[in-house]
Write a structure and sequence with these properties.
Length: about 140
C-alpha cells in the first residue's frame, strides 16, 4: 500500500512538471535572455514619438517586478506596430515569460505605473540594459 502511494505521488509530480513546465536551468535562462536581447535589437528602429512607456529602474532586488513591467509595456507597444514587429514582440514576451518563475511580492518594489514615463528609444535602451544585467 505504501509503495502505491509513493509511486502515485511521484507520478503526480511528473505530470505537474510536464503540465506547468520545469524551472529553466542556467543555460536555458541565458538562451532566453540572449534571444530576447537579439529580438529587442530588431525593434530599435521603431519610430514612436507619441506613446510613453513606464520604464522601471534597474534594481536587482526587484527583477521580477521590473520584468513584469517591461512585459506589460511591450503589450502596449504591440498594439501600435505593424504585424512583422508584433511577431518579434511576441517572441520576446514568450522568452521573458519563461524567466518569470514564481511571483515574489517585494513591498519595496515600485508598481509599474509609479515609474517614470519615457519615449520608446529610452524605454528600449533601459530594457536592453536591464536584460543584459540579468545575464551577469
Amino acid at each position: 500500500m505504501c509503495k502505491v502511494l509513493i509511486f502515485g505521488c511521484i507520478a503526480a509530480v511528473i505530470l505537474m512538471t510536464a503540465a506547468y513546465g520545469a524551472p529553466l536551468n542556467k543555460t536555458e535562462k541565458e538562451a532566453c535572455l540572449q534571444a530576447s536581447i537579439t529580438d529587442l535589437g530588431l525593434l530599435k528602429d521603431i519610430n514612436n514619438d507619441f506613446l510613453y512607456f513606464y520604464t522601471p529602474n534597474d534594481r536587482q532586488e526587484c527583477n521580477h517586478t521590473t520584468l513584469a513591467c517591461f512585459l506589460k509595456e511591450l503589450q502596449v507597444l504591440k498594439q501600435d506596430v505593424e504585424e512583422e514587429k508584433q511577431l518579434v514582440i511576441i517572441n520576446i514576451e514568450k522568452n521573458l515569460e519563461d524567466l518569470m518563475g514564481p511571483h515574489f511580492s517585494n513591498p519595496t518594489c515600485k508598481k509599474c505605473e509609479a515609474n517614470e514615463k519615457k519615449k520608446f528609444p529610452e524605454f528600449h535602451q533601459d530594457m536592453t540594459r536591464f536584460l543584459q544585467s540579468m545575464q551577469k
